[in-house]
Sequence to fold (199 residues):
Amino acid sequence: MTLFTASDGIARCGWCAASEDYIAYHDREWGFPVADDRRLFEKLSLEGFQSGLSWRTILMKRENFRAAFAGFDFDRIADFNESDVERLLHDAGIVRHRGKIEAVINNARRAQDLVHEAGSLAAYVCGFEPRGDIPFLASTSPASVAMSKDLKKRGWKFVGPTTVHAFMQAMGLINDHAEGCAIRAEAERARTAFQPPAG
Fold:
């Protein structure tokens, strides 16, 4: 993967060169482990919305998504009904795709079930952390295939292996910062220090 050097003189993964928002996301979020269930649910939901679109499109709308989906509090979203779907379909600040909107509501209910069983989304997700080497910037992995298959079996939607792999990269289950990227070592230290929550 190519690197780029920003005006601050720091070398970073080439994909974040598109905008200052991308750089901030790359430096502070992407590849860093997360234990907060709401953030995990948000990211998995937004990865589903990204399907067929660019992550930049979603990132630019993230605050609108948060406002529209109750801060991605899945206990609140689980109570959404058809009137909420119609409201969201008329919200110009988000991606207005009925299937993806309905998937988030469905997945919120499935998340409640999963938390009841596993203790937390974080405990469940960390159980799929890849073991061994994964090809750099692969689009899927055996771990993402396994997690996707398990989520689908539990009734989740818009959680294909590619979507789940992107989620794993973003949430620090995989460190896909390029060799030579100044943030790679920082993300790896955070991953090493991270204590996965008990189930």
The chain has one domain: 34-175. The longest strand covers residues 3-5.
